[in-house]
Amino acid sequence: MAEKTYLHRRGVLTALLAMALPSPGSATAASGSVQPRYTVRIGVVAEPDSELVGAASDAALREGVRLETVRFASVAQANAAVTTGRIEANIAQDGPSLARAGSGLLPVAHTVTYPMGLYSRTLSDLRGLPPRSVVAFPAEPSAQGRALLLLQGYGLIRISSDAGLSPRTTDIVENRRGLRWRAVAEARLAAALDNAALVALPFAAASAAGLAPARDALGMEDSRVPFANVLAIRARDRDAPWLTPTVRGLHSEPVKTFILARFNDSVRRPW
């Protein structure tokens, strides 16, 4: 049900943005001549998202919006802060996670995709993965499903078309190499590189281990996967006057430059 809810929301996302955002030819005033008409507080959990808001700040200010970052210890706290009106929005999670949270918040724009990657200390190419190899992936159900979809994307397995965005190993309908599965808590996944042929590491876990998808992974998600982080707001704010300039700031040229320079293609831009 959560996946269906997310897919429905993803379907209306384009329509929401089409209504909210001005045409590409719309004129904007220079930042020096604009005083902010609105202050938009954006909740984040991860430091890279704080940096993302900072990169968008000047462009948003030219649109009349001052962006402020509010840091939270957890996604649940960031969602609660939006729900209660303490802040206007957050960029703390991907779309499917927001749908599963059941917070009632609305995804209105994509920010970045933090890609999951496939890593190995013994292989130089996925084609060299031996039969009956052990593949480690996150024990957490949604991340595990994401890992299986990534493995399918590289042709290592085939998953039932009915499995949705959170497949399990029981949904695998083809496993020609006879790969064996090991579910590992995310905090210990990087250590699994010592004894598993292949490890599916979420971006945060890889980063904590000093690994970058574009540099170190044998395979990684691209920007087209449905796991991009989203700007989440209350449904009642979908027509708020600050929303358009906020999205324009987050989708501005300085943000494109920041993503490329800061992450060297290890973080993807889905817009």
UniProtKB/TrEMBL annotation:
Broad class of where this protein is predominantly found: membrane
Xref: SUPFAM superfamilies: Periplasmic binding protein-like II
Keyword flag Signal: yes
Membrane-topology descriptor: Lipid-anchor
Compartment(s) where it occurs, according to its Swiss-Prot or TrEMBL record: Membrane
Top-level taxon of origin: Bacteria
Protein keywords: Lipoprotein, Membrane, Palmitate, Plasmid, Signal
Signal sequence coordinates: 1-29
GO cellular component: membrane
Protein family: Belongs to the NlpA lipoprotein family.
Protein name in the entry: NLPA lipoprotein
Species the sequence originates in: Cupriavidus metallidurans (strain ATCC 43123 / DSM 2839 / NBRC 102507 / CH34)
